[in-house]
Design goal:
This protein is α+β, with helices and mostly antiparallel strands. The protein is built from 14 helices and 17 strands. The strands form four sheets. It has a six-stranded antiparallel β-sheet with strand order 2-1-4-9-6-7, with no helix packed on it. A five-stranded mixed β-sheet has the order 12-14-15-17-16. The longest helix has 74 residues, at 372-445.
């Protein structure tokens, strides 16, 4: 906030300098009265002027966009001669410099004489050293002197007139140059501040603001006549063309800046449509500025300049992700800005004597605005966003610290659980071995196929099931603690499958297709775990009279060579597993609860595949389930 206050102090210097210059200019100023008339057809000559058509005004004459010519009549009061009784020509300063054509008509010995200046004409020796246009006017010491100005311009017509003694000209130029230079310096300072902000956070908002402020600097440079002074060899027509283009460019960048400000806060589809419409209209205005329709281009740009804050106000109200504090400030600032803008535009289109005291309000839409209001707002937004980002980062760090503590706690619990599983599986193996040894002895003692024999077989099946479950739990626990395997060896597919299928009594169920030379490049032990569980899963859940298909081949995907193992088997509709839970530990379909198993096999497949950087996938189609394993080769 301190930076913004300092920035505000610096930015206000041009206004302070302007006030000082105005006060100093009152001293020694030549008294004169002003009036204007509008010649809409540009047909009047100085001899045909009707004094009754002129309306008095003070300060600037603002006519907005007018066709034809604007006439200004000056009634200069008698000028007192010096001590030696001599009178000198006065200096008539007319601005701004970008007016296309300025004619000054003075009467000498009953005849009217014309002096010509303007943006479309080459500057002449003896002209003002600043961007204003200077004319020599001989004033009378006894009677008022009448001078007529005829101004033609394709853009916004605002004429400033000043009458000085020759000795007062250097001070007037110095004051004017100082005020103009300060305005340009502030604009460049805002641009440098924007670049500094952008280098720090690299945000799109600040980058767009830098583009906007750069257009302001170019705009001011053109309107202050620096382009013509820096490039004296350029034609006056080209320099005048640049004046129109940079004005349209500034309006375009203002629209872009408004859109970028809100687009990240989800302002909705309607705002985006309005924003795109403004951009298209700005593009049309730029095309018009490059042709002979320059006044139409400026009129369209002024309309867009007025509509843009209205669209931005709408976007501020509907943006879903805009913080409440920023929404309130933006709404208030935009509301005040819209009111001041409307009043300022109205004042610039009307020239009335009673409006002269309100001329400072015209500065809201003055073409010399250095971007202070927009710059202050967007630096405040940047600071608010940076503060929000810092808070978010602090919360993120705190959340990460909390998760780290939780992860450490969970890891300790996991280690404790793993140790308990190891202990339990080891302790259960010993009594289970004793039971199996006793069962073997009882089987040898009991002969025949009676009830006793059947009970022993059921006990033996239950023991085998318990032993298998203990093996799965122990191996699953071991796999989880095993790091990703770096051990890789070439494992030929055909002998491996022969080993896994072995002397299966249902060998006719297996339909195996192995591509010649198909092999796997990975940890053999972990690969065996995966394939054993996939084959066991198919053997368990496939109907006894239905075939099980196995296919092994090599394939290429995205410049990578893969070993692909696919196994499929039919499955009844009522036993199709839920794909979302298939690889979860302990998941079993409700209709297979009577079959042996604990739902560990496929979770073990998934975990083991990750250890060898393989991919395992499942799909169900045409009454069959397909499991695919892809191992990088």
């Amino acid at each position: 906030m301190l930076r913004l206050l300092l920035y505000l102090l610096v930015a206000l210097l041009p206004f302070h300098a302007r006030a000082q210059a105005l006060a100093q200019a009152q001293e020694g100023r030549v008294a004169f009265e002003q009036a204007f008339a509008q010649d809409s057809q540009a047909e009047w000559t100085v001899e045909q002027l009707d004094p009754g058509a002129f309306q008095p005004f003070q300060g600037h004459v603002s006519r907005g966009f007018q066709s034809g010519a604007t006439w200004v009549r000056l009634q200069i009061a008698p000028v007192a001669p010096d001590k030696e009784g001599r009178t000198y020509p006065l200096v008539l300063r007319v601005g701004p410099h970008y007016l296309d054509r300025i004619e000054v008509h003075t009467q000498n010995e009953g005849r009217w004489h014309m002096q010509l200046r303007g943006a479309l004409h080459v500057r002449q020796p003896g002209d003002c050293p600043d961007e204003m246009h200077c004319f020599a006017v001989q004033a009378s010491a006894q009677t008022p002197t009448t001078v007529y100005l005829r101004v033609q311009h394709r853009g916004f017509i605002a004429v400033q007139v000043e009458v000085l003694r020759p000795q007062d000209l250097p001070d007037a130029v110095a004051r004017h140059v100082r005020a103009s230079t300060l305005s340009l310096v502030v604009a460049m300072g805002l641009l440098l501040m924007g670049l500094a902000f952008w280098v720090h956070d690299r945000s799109l908002l600040m980058l767009t603001y830098c583009g906007f402020q750069a257009s302001v600097v170019v705009f001011l440079s053109s309107n202050l006549g620096l382009v013509a002074r820096l490039f004296p060899d350029w034609s006056s027509t080209l320099v005048s063309q640049i004046n129109y283009v940079v004005y349209v460019l500034r309006v375009l960048m203002t629209v872009v800046l408004a859109g970028v400000t809100l687009v990240s806060h989800q302002p909705g589809r309607r705002f985006m449509e309005l924003f795109k419409a403004l951009l298209l209209a700005c593009g049309l205005s730029m095309l018009l500025a490059l042709t002979q329709y320059k006044q139409l281009a400026l009129q369209l740009s002024l309309l867009l300049f007025t509509l843009n804050p209205l669209v931005m106000l709408y976007g501020t109200r509907v943006a879903r992700d805009l913080p409440a504090a920023q929404r309130k400030v933006l709404t208030l600032v935009l509301f005040i800005y819209i009111l001041a803008l409307a009043l300022g535009i109205w004042l610039n289109f009307h020239t009335k004597p009673w409006l002269s005291d309100l001329s400072p309000i015209k500065q809201v839409v003055d073409m010399r605005m250095n971007g202070f209001a927009i710059g202050f707002l967007f630096f405040w937004l940047a600071l608010m966003e940076r503060s929000a980002q810092n808070r978010a980062k602090a919360q993120e760090v705190e959340a990460l610290r909390t998760r780290a503590i939780q992860a450490s706690t969970w890891q300790a619990q996991l280690d404790e659980r793993s140790a308990l599983i190891d202990m339990l599986t080891h302790e259960l193996k010993n009594p289970l071995g004793t039971v199996r040894f006793a069962l073997a002895s009882l089987k040898r003692a009991v002969s025949g196929e009676g009830d006793a024999r059947q009970r022993l077989e059921r006990i033996d099946a239950s023991v085998r099931r318990m032993d298998s479950l203990i093996e799965h739990v122990a191996y699953s626990n071991k796999i989880e603690r095993t790091p990703a395997s770096q051990q890789r060896e070439t494992v030929l597919a055909e002998p491996l499958l022969q080993e896994l299928l072995g002397d299966d009594t249902e060998a006719l169920r297996w339909q195996v297709e192995i591509e010649d030379g198909a092999a796997f490049l990975c940890d053999r032990q972990l690969l065996v775990v995966i394939l054993e569980n996939l084959i066991g899963n198919a053997r368990k859940y496939a109907p006894k009279d239905q075939p099980i298909d196995i296919r092994v081949h090599m394939q290429h995907e995205a410049d990578a060579r893969l070993s692909c193992f696919e196994i499929s088997n039919p499955v009844p509709p009522e036993m199709v597993p839920a794909q979302a839970h298939l690889f979860e530990r302990y998941y079993r379909h409700p209709n297979v609860q009577s079959l042996p198993g604990m739902g560990l096999g496929l979770s073990l497949v998934k975990t083991t595949a990750q250890k060898i950087e393989a991919q395992v996938a499942y799909r169900h189609a045409q009454g069959r389930v397909f499991f695919t394993l892809k191992v990088p080769f």
